[in-house]
């Protein structure tokens, strides 16, 4: 019974993690820049901008918030390194929240 409870709680945790965000396919970074409003953003244009799990109204860019993501510097550095070397990345986008300018929010990033 205890094992069944652990399996059930693990499945529930994994499901809730999956609902909170969505990974993109591997994408090439086309544009990178910093934006100063609302505490600062890293702004990115990718080769495929079709993922929009939060249904944000402005999908011209994906952004990472400097004030709301404790790993902003690390993620921005990873993205900039991949931009300069031409490596593809995958980003994890928030499923429920958009930026103040209604762009999809990047939560995590990884090199492909």
UniProtKB/TrEMBL annotation:
List the protein's name: Uncharacterized protein
Q: Keywords for this entry?
A: Signal
Q: Which residues form the signal peptide?
A: 1-21
